[in-house]
Amino acid sequence: MFRNNYDNDSVTFSPQGRIFQVEYAQEAVKQGSVVVGIVSKTHAVLAAIKRNAEELSSYQKKIIPIDSHFGVALAGLASDARVLSNFMKQQSLSSRLTYDRAIPLSDITSRIADRAQTNTQQYGRRPYGVGLLIAGVDAKGPHLFEFQPSGVTQEMVACGIGARSQMARTYLERHLDEFESSSREELIKHALRALKESLSQDKELTVDNTSVGIGGLDESFVLYEGQDLTEWLDATFENREGGGDEGGDAMETDS
Amino acid sequence: MTSIGTGYDLSNSVFSPDGRNFQVEYAVKAVENGGTAVGIRCKDGIVLALEKLVTSKLLKSGANKRIATVDRNVGIVSSGLLPDGRHFVSRARDEAAAWRQQYKAPIPTSSLADRMGSYVQAYTLYSSVRPFGVTSIIGGWDAEAELPVDGQVGSGPKVGSGGKKEGAKHGGPFLYMIEPSGLYWGYYGAATGKGRQIAKSELEKLNLVDGEMSLEQGVKEAARIIYIAHDDNKDKEFELEMTWISAISGPTKGKHEEVPKELREEAEKLAKKALEGDDDDEEEMQE
Amino acid sequence: MNHLPQAWGRPRDDVYGAYDNSHFQTAGPNQHTQSPIVTGTSVVAAKFKDGVVIASDNLASYGSLARFTDVKRLRKFNENVVVGFGGDVSDMQYLDRLLNSLDIRENYASADDPLNAKNLHTYLAKVMYKRRSDFNPLWNHLLIAGLDGEAKPFLASADLLGTTFSSPTLATGFGAHLAQPIMRRTIPDEASVEKVSKDEAVKLVKECMKVLFYRDARSMDKYSIAVITKEGVELSEDEKLENQSWAFAEQIRGYGTQTA
């Protein structure tokens, strides 16, 4: 049943000093649909591909606003992400209540990292099967953090996780130097293009399967979905087929 | 490694017939692949340095600090599994806070090392947990002067606390290194991680036992040693992170702080120069 | 013989008579602090255009006895905030340690985003309110002075009941009666803060300290004063009231030994 004797649980090291259960949990992240995040000097953007189980079902939630100053995007087990995001909401609110202060993003990130680490060192628990991108703005400006099931967290300039996310990361690496000085709109375009890179050939970004979350120095973190995305999608992929059809609706929506 | 597969290495807290705890040995393997970390105990302070391998271009440079502060006067740098290192630091901070609750004074570095040694050792005792996948270097400066008790609001009695020998030296710099087994020693110079062998042999050349190394010199040596230890790994980029702790009268006023940017960059410049010098020597010898 | 646990280790009833259990119960409900023991008196503070001035004397009284004469009741939290403590000194020391541990933790997480005076006031108000709701108050009246998130002068109080209050000038204890009216002559409202310079504010607060020394029997003439601005905290803990004039005392009639 097992690949080897050392991958039954997360409290056993392999002779090489690896913990297979944790590595397998990282694989669960790669099963999730792709999400990307980018920061500029003024904004932090998250963008995600939503999947639906079947034609008639709704789409999976990929971006969760946590507090007015930040949100998270997830790849992997959505129910694990819900546990973590509920915890983050509690911590975030408690910071506002106790200190009247928006919780620093590095702070909230390390709090979930510490929780995740516990799951890799005690028997009878399993690592979280989800990766998160935490993006928003605090007193020190815009930030983007990556969280992995192992409990590793890293501050990034740009990041992509989930299925085929290597393609998105390649795009991001290629345009790395442009991000810092990008405007809000440019940043969104970059995020959408990176997302598109990870999509298989026959798929397109549509108002149904895309999510965008934006936070900025003077704006709260807001989640954009559905018709709110039309203008951005059209502007980003000008020459795509059928793109123009949805354009008309967009003018009537307010964003 | 002869006993691998005989089943005694599948669970923590189990001895093999020849008296080994394999899970602890495997945890050490996790450490051996981590970035090199060194600590130097100088005459007037402690230097901690870490080689941070840059795993992705997308990482924000200069962020992601890994050498942590405990209380105000202690620094911890770990090599191995990053999340385990954070767990270790978080426990150390709890210990330091608990000490303050009890004694209304900062924890001496030796006591912190002792408590953390016990904590790490406890993770080798039970099959329900795994050992720490880190080796941690703890460096601290214990105040040489009589500190006010926490919460003290007046000047207090003119004589200090009792039990002290007239003219004896108190406090100073201290350095310890704790292994996954919970074993710890005090060090003049400590190194762990991938490049530890090279780093150790460099540290041995410094005559740290004499206690003559100044803090500023220690900073330069630490940077140089990290650069040398990294040399085998040349194709990978890395960032050097350095912190220090001086006497109350020194540059950090008894606190654990990041080495100022200018000083670090100067040390890095010298380190690179020293490396180039070495390469030239080798080429000459080959000729 | 009685083997019930409550009889373990107790004298035998058949030898020594029935055991007197009365000391097991207290006479009434649980009681916490009913009154402070060693106390500090007034703290006075005033905002000015670039920051806040705060002062308190260095006396800790034991009832009417001037027991400790070098007690520093202004506590610097970090480079941006000073807390002034009136009321029980041991509770002040407890809070001081609490703030110290908070500061240590705060430095771990976000050294370049320190808690400002507003954050600290919110926190302390929560602590005070929690304790009074446990019927176990910290017997203090605090003034928190510093700058808020927008780097504007911030001054607010929190007391043993968890009550909070903010004003351009604040004073605790006797100062609330004696110093507040004097300070309000110069700084009647938020708008007038802009017109007051640092020197004027310092002079005003020092003047209040003098009046308080004249009229408050639990005060002394050695005091601490702090100025908090964008540049940080200037704290002096060794000030002495200058230019005292007790001539007015001659005119006081109505109590004490008088011949005329």
TrEMBL record, chain A:
Keyword Cell membrane: no
Statement: the UniProt record of this protein carries the keyword Nucleus: yes
Domain Proteasome alpha-type subunits: 6-28
GO terms under biological process: ubiquitin-dependent protein catabolic process
Pfam families reported for this sequence: Proteasome, Proteasome_A_N
Annotated compartments: Cytoplasm; Nucleus
Cellular component annotations (GO), alphabetically ordered: cytoplasm; nucleus; proteasome core complex, alpha-subunit complex
Main location: cytoplasm
Domain of life: Eukaryota
Keywords assigned: Cytoplasm, Nucleus, Proteasome
Family statement drawn from the similarity comment of this UniProt entry: Belongs to the peptidase T1A family.
Subunit organization: The 26S proteasome consists of a 20S proteasome core and two 19S regulatory subunits.
Listed name of the protein: Proteasome subunit alpha type
Organism: Periconia digitata
Automatic annotation (TrEMBL), chain B:
Gene Ontology CC terms: cytoplasm; nucleus; proteasome core complex, alpha-subunit complex
Biased composition range(s): Acidic residues: 277-287
Region (Disordered): 267-287
Keyword Cytoplasm among record annotations: yes
Subcellular location: Cytoplasm; Nucleus
Composition bias, Basic and acidic residues: 267-276
GO biological process: ubiquitin-dependent protein catabolic process
Assigned keywords, A-Z: Cytoplasm, Nucleus, Proteasome
Source domain of life: Eukaryota
Keyword ATP-binding: no
Domain Proteasome alpha-type subunits: 8-30
Subunit structure: The 26S proteasome consists of a 20S proteasome core and two 19S regulatory subunits.
Family classification: Belongs to the peptidase T1A family.
Protein name, UniProt field: Proteasome subunit alpha type
Species of provenance: Periconia digitata
Lineage: Eukaryota, Fungi, Dikarya, Ascomycota, Pezizomycotina
Automatic annotation (TrEMBL), chain C:
Keywords: Cytoplasm, Nucleus, Proteasome
InterPro entries: Ntn_hydrolases_N, Proteasome_beta4, Proteasome_sua/b, Proteasome_suB-type
Pfam families tied to this protein: Proteasome
Top-level division of the source organism's lineage: Eukaryota
Gene3D superfamilies: Glutamine Phosphoribosylpyrophosphate, subunit 1, domain 1
Location(s), subcellular: Cytoplasm; Nucleus
GO cellular component: cytoplasm; nucleus; proteasome core complex, beta-subunit complex
GO BP field: proteolysis involved in protein catabolic process
Function: Non-catalytic component of the proteasome.
Family, per entry: Belongs to the peptidase T1B family.
Protein name: Proteasome subunit beta
Organism per entry: Periconia digitata
